[in-house]
Amino acid sequence: MTAQTFELNHCYNMDCMEAMAAFPNDYFDLAVVDPPYFSGPERRGFYGSKVSRIGVHRDYPVSPAWEVPGKEYFDELTRVSRHYIIWGCNYFSYGFAPGRIVWDKCNQATSFSDCEIAATDLLKTIRLFRYMWSGMMQGKSISEGHIMQGNKSLNEVRVHPTQKPVVLYDWIFQNFAKPGQKVLDTHLGSGSSRIAAYEAGVDFIGFEIDPFYFKTQEERFANYTNQTSLFHMR
User: Fold this and answer.
1) Is 186 helix (H, G, I), strand (E, B) or coil?
2) 3-class state of residue 136 by DSSP
3) How far apart are CA 144 and CA 25, in angstroms?
4) Mind listing the pLDDT tens digit for each residue in 171-183?
5) Are 153 and 138 in contact (CB under 8 A)?
6) CATH number of the domain that 91 lies in?
7) C-alpha–C-alpha distance, residues 134 and 128, integer Å
8) pTM for this model (two decimals)
9) What domain range is 214 assigned to?
10) Strands 133-134 and 81-87, bridge-based pairing
11) Buried/exposed 30-60: b ≥16 CB within 10 Å, e otherwise
12) Number of domains composing the chain
């Protein structure tokens, strides 16, 4: 396999380690990744019911998609990407650059983490993004993320246990990427990063090893692009 095997603005149902081996050094301008930091929701028994109250299915078989990556993964990621944003950096033992992005989820009243942290080599300081993300409680917009969206019908549909909102990636690409740059996501999950990349005009390649979630995000992305195409035709 070579880099030419993969088309820009496409996603693939395959092991990201096998895929990254095909790319030369610094092929991507930016990697934005959210690798798993525990072995799997069902194996851990963390999420409880098989289908959550907001409709997220958890009754899938545990797959290699939930294997926690080690040094080999991060070495390969930093080889193929000039820069990176890696969520969950606090759960991994690796020599990340000092820059941090903190996502304040505005959910201090719950038992879940108040925020999530990403390591990045794009800056040496700490940047904060506030966006409510707790069950049916979701923020209004990038600028009013701390205010709850009043109309629940406008909420982003949740399809993955560790899903991040599209708005978070919208903010990332607005601040840390430029149209035409090549962006990599090795753990595509719900496909939120793919939707935001489509809107930002960056050239995106994503990998997802789990066939169930790969199919789910493919359907989600198709539905999103079909809706936006209809909107622009009006």
Assistant:
1) coil
2) coil
3) 39
4) 999 999 999 999 9
5) no
6) 3.40.50.150
7) 18
8) 0.88
9) 3-233
10) unpaired
11) bbbbbbbeeebbbeeeeeeeeeeeeebeeeb
12) 1
